[in-house]
Amino acid sequence: MTAVEVLKPGLLTTPQDAGRMDLTHLGIGRAGAFDAPALRLANALAGNPRDACALEITLFGPTLRFRRDAWIAVTGAPLPVRVDSDEQPMWSPLHLRSGQTLELGAAREGCRAYLAVRGGFDLAYVLGSRSLDVNAALGPFGHPLRAGDVLPVGDTSLVPASQGTPSRKWRLDARHWFDAAIPHTLRLTSGTHASRLDEDSREALFAREFRVGNASNRVGVRLQSTRLQLSTPFEMISEGCVAGTLQLPPSGEPIALGVEHPVSGGYPRIGQIAAVDLPRLAQCRPGDALRFTPCTAEAALRMLREREQRLRKLEIAILQRLRA
Amino acid sequence: MAEFSIETLSEDALLLRLGDRIDAEPNARIHAIAARLRDMTLPGIHDIAPAYASLLVRFDPFATDGADVLRDSLRKLASEPGVHADTSPRLVEIPVCYGGEHGVDLQDVARHAGLDTQQLAARHASMEYRVAMLGFAPGFPYLLGMDPSLHVPRRATPRTRVPAGSVAIGGTQTGFYPRELPGGWQLIGRTPLTLFDAQRDPPCLLAPGDRVRFRAIDADEFAALTEPAEERGEGSPLFDLRDQGRSRK
Known about the structure:
The complex is a heterodimer.
Chain A: E1 3-8, E2 13-16, H1 36-46, E3 54-58, E4 63-66, E5 70-76, E6 81-83, E7 86-88, E8 94-96, E9 101-104, E10 112-117, E11 150-152, E12 184-190, H2 199-207, E13 210-212, E14 220-224, E15 239-240, E16 245-247, E17 255-257, E18 264-265, E19 269-273, H3 278-282, E20 289-294, H4 297-323
Parallel strand pairs in A: 12-20
Antiparallel strand pairs in A: 1-4, 1-11, 2-3, 3-10, 4-9, 5-8, 5-10, 6-7, 6-9, 12-19, 13-14, 13-20, 14-17, 15-18, 16-17, 16-19
Helix pairs in contact in A: 1-4
Chain B: E1 5-10, E2 13-17, H1 24-40, E3 45-50, E4 54-59, H2 66-79, E5 91-98, H3 106-113, H4 117-126, E6 128-134, E7 141-144, E8 159-162, E9 166-170, E10 173-176, E11 181-183, E12 186-190, E13 211-217, H5 219-225, E14 237-239
Parallel strand pairs in B: 5-13
Antiparallel strand pairs in B: 1-2, 2-4, 3-4, 5-12, 5-14, 6-7, 6-13, 8-11, 9-10, 9-12
Helix pairs in contact in B: 1-2, 3-4
């Protein structure tokens, strides 16, 4: 079987797919790729089904040796891709020969990149998914990649583009799928407790620029600015949580929940990031500036559906191109 | 008609809320509504997660009218006076070795409650609890039904490692640590049962809505019941009248 050896693991490299479904009631979160469209496009370019297991790379990538020929693709935050020291493009199907070394460097901007390999990383399913929930230590290996780990690659004859060998080089236009603009601008729909913010804080939420805190991770992106305050503090009991919720803990510094958010929580919800902007949240790195613009729930849903249509069309177009 | 609200959390999630109190009655209704909703097998629904007084439901945002159908169903279920009966949930017995090395805070907790350690253990084991919800960590149950005399503040400094199976009290709540985790609750005992195992189906010994009883055991029985790591078995529900909230595979 084809396999990939981890020579250097990178800063925080984890196997991710679409995540775990239907286990929230047991206290088990979804996990999965934080920048989900980037994972899907990496899979599409590698010729995989969209939910195949790929690697999520954080800020600094791994160095991997391929024991067999392989087709791969790298998407997400721009970083140097070197195959035996030759610079190669992202957002493009790449062919690696047996014995070659793939070195992924430091992200120039953004935070998370994705490496897919044709056949997918054939790791053990844990509760229906190959995603590593870093915080719950749940998933293949139970920990992020380490030097010496060996990643088996699945059967390449079973994937949609099994016959695909692109005849000449091409790449996707990444502009629609990675937005480098700083400050990151995220659309925010109203949260349950938004009206409980005091007047200054209600204004500050959309007027101020926030700074992404160092303690940000897949659980949540911590935002620093002037402290936001409720007009009257109140206690609430634990309720279900979802990714993209902007919580306000007593510190006054909001936390935008990521894909490893706790399944329940008891902090006031002052906003909900439009799902279509979760990739932007995923690409926030510590120190980045971020701001919010108001958005209605209807517009957020419409934009999400439109993006899904674009993604599906693109996945089909990529597959056709791989087979051409 | 009981009061409720239905809130859109995100493009793919609704939250039904029956109130803002930690109380057995709204929690029982939440479990009953969750069971009814699960039985309806609406298309595109993939997470039905009870909390103390609310129910989170996730759905496919790309299915036309998915949210509307779900919202109507939740509204109907929450309005029906019939949907609050306690639907004979499972009763699970958890053997617990109280005190000693297995419950290093038992003495402090007993002193706080004005009891001796045996009285405290007996009182904790005499109640019937209900799994209000699971959260914090995979398989971590929040239990309702603890005697108010056993309420005790959390530790000032949380422990970085609480052993798996530890039975603990934190504030007004009691529960146990399904895996080794950091935690600030007071440790009063430990169960030899494996509460969470990702390789097991279902992975958690307890499901939301289960009834729970603790049975005091001594250190010898604890040792005898400790399952070898390589052959962890299923838990031992006394009755299995209704398999509520279990993962469907």
